[in-house]
Automatic annotation (TrEMBL):
GO terms for biological process: L-histidine biosynthetic process. The keyword Nuclease does not apply. NCBIfam families: hisJ_fam. GO terms for molecular function: histidinol-phosphatase activity. Pathway: Amino-acid biosynthesis; L-histidine biosynthesis; L-histidine from 5-phospho-alpha-D-ribose 1-diphosphate: step 8/9. The lineage of its organism: Bacteria, Bacillati, Bacillota, Tissierellia, Dethiosulfatibacter. This is Histidinol-phosphatase. Residues 3-192 form the PHP domain. It catalyses: L-histidinol phosphate + H2O = L-histidinol + phosphate. Gene3D superfamilies: Metal-dependent hydrolases. It comes from Dethiosulfatibacter aminovorans DSM 17477.
Length: 263
């Protein structure tokens, strides 16, 4: 069993260091884990949520050498403003990680958890703005490997009284998935949704089914765990569901190079 998205002290809100998270993964008999802490680059540099990537990568490598039972790889979950693509590219010229997950947590500079994003808007408008942000990011930026938790917007639907049928916005989802396939990227299936109101992974089954029908093959599975008990959460059940849809492989990245591995 693999987990492509585990966080540590390098992420705000996580109280556990990398080694403690790795030990928990070993206890769960996980054979490969990516430490993928959140790394955000903002137009206003003082608002960055960043850390020393050299130190981070070296700490992961140190722990990887210490434990034979598991392979530990380096990743980041990237949030980035469009104006900062060049700054991030320059940074990546000087430091190597194994995988980059591109995630959308805000639209037009406003976080999805902020009620300002939802005020005085119809539900369809909210969804269109969110998915347009994702589509434009994928079209204009290439320095990533995986698109993270694609339909995270659903996490907030009860808080802001949103409920929209998939058919109402499936066209833009189709455009996003085609772009991901065209650029040969992966999508993350993120099991943190089981801890939220949606009680399912991100993205939903309808999106995964569409992705497969469009020819999408590259997927990774991540828990987004910030506590040891959440590592690998529901992954066995999820793999069974993915096989039913038609997926047979996950995509392992080492030094940003993808390798297809059968479940």
């Amino acid at each position: 069993m693999y987990d492509f998205h585990v966080r540590s002290l390098y992420s705000a809100g996580c109280r556990y260091d990398i080694e403690k998270m790795v030990k928990a993964a070993i206890k769960k008999k996980i054979k490969l884990v990516y430490i993928a802490d959140f790394y955000e680059i903002n137009e206003k540099k003082d608002w960055d949520m960043s850390f020393d990537l050299y130190e981070y990568r070296n700490e992961i490598q140190r722990i990887n050498k210490k434990y034979d039972e598991i392979e530990i790889l380096s990743a980041i979950e990237l949030g980035i403003d469009e104006s900062e693509y060049g700054r991030f590219d320059a940074l990546m010229d000087n430091v190597q990680v194994d995988m980059i997950i591109l995630s959308t947590h805000k639209v037009n500079g406003v976080y999805l958890s902020d009620e300002r994003f939802y005020s005085e808007k119809h539900t369809l408008e909210i969804y269109e703005e969110y998915y347009t942000e994702i589509l434009e990011s994928i079209r204009s930026f290439d320095n990533f490997d995986v698109v993270g938790h694609l339909d995270l917007i659903d996490r907030f639907k009860e808080r802001y009284y949103m409920d929209l049928e998939f058919t109402k916005y499936k066209k833009i989802i189709s455009d996003i998935l085609k772009e991901i396939i065209e650029k040969d990227k992966s999508i993350e299936i993120n099991t943190s949704g089981y801890h939220s109101i949606v009680n399912r992974p991100y993205p939903k089954k309808e999106i995964l089914t569409m992705y497969k029908k469009l020819g999408g093959e590259k997927i990774v599975i991540g828990s987004d765990a910030d506590k040891p008990e959440f590592i690998g959460y529901k992954h066995k059940e999820l793999i069974s569901d993915l096989k039913d849809i038609g997926f047979n492989h996950i995509t392992v990245y080492r030094k940003r190079i993808p390798h297809m591995v059968r479940f």
